[in-house]
Design brief:
single chain, 220 residues, mainly alpha, 3 helical TM bundles of succinate and fumarate reductases, 9 helices, 0% strand
């Protein structure tokens, strides 16, 4: 543990860890969306998928790595932000970027990364509490998920959380590659375009679920 903390004292190592954990979390989000698309199909298929997932011992191993990646990513990202603001003194009086390729929306997304990250963390805590900590093998998980998405409070929360996730990934995907050291004038623009596409697909992919649940209320 002492060796790990000493290693993380190196700013370059911390930056690399933030980038790699960020990319890992994006990959997890993609896989999570793919698995949850089964919600639109036959309830038995969704319940079978959930039973297989929750019955696998690999799930617990994956959760340990996932929670560790979340913790490292969030703590180191906050540390970078705090140290950066201390180094700048009072911070920016005018929202302006030294990089000419950044528009105002792009810069705003960058400046709000910590805010959206903290909001997403709160959303994920609710999500884990509802669908992991209170999970029971006897329950119809498809009905439970649809019921949560149709709830007048939880449904909008899941919609907002989905949009925030997409917004966070919009800047986070690009920043993760840069932090991990993958930056080149030739392929960075393609990484940025991929990040935009990924943010739209993931954000809308999750957001459409509560919309679908409300739209089909009374029809299932």
């Amino acid at each position: 543990m002492t060796g790990l903390l000493t290693l993380l004292d190196n700013p370059l190592v911390r930056k690399w860890v933030v980038g790699i954990t960020g990319l890992g979390l994006v990959l997890y989000t993609v896989l999570h969306l793919v698995g949850n698309l089964a919600i639109f199909g036959d309830p038995a298929t969704y319940n079978g998928y959930a039973a297989m997932l929750h019955g696998s011992p690999l799930l617990y191993v994956g959760e340990v790595f996932l929670y560790a990646a979340f913790a490292l990513h969030i703590l180191l990202a906050i540390a970078f932000t705090v140290n950066g603001r201390k180094a700048r003194g009072q911070g920016y009086k005018v929202m302006r970027s030294k990089r000419p390729d950044r528009g105002n929306f792009d810069l705003l997304s960058h400046r709000l990364m910590i805010v959206t990250g903290i909001l997403i963390l709160g959303f994920l805590m609710v999500h884990v509490w509802q669908l992991r900590l209170t999970h029971s093998d006897e329950i119809d998980l498809h009905a439970k998920v649809v019921g949560i998405l149709r709830h007048p409070a939880w449904g909008p929360l899941y919609f907002i959380g989905s949009i925030l996730t997409g917004w966070h990934i919009y800047r986070g995907f690009q920043s993760a590659f840069r932090s991990a050291g993958f930056h080149h004038a030739r392929y960075t623009p393609w990484i940025n375009r991929a990040g935009i596409l990924l943010a739209i697909v993931l954000g809308l992919g999750f957001a459409v679920m509560p919309i679908w649940a409300f739209a089909t209320k009374g029809g299932m």
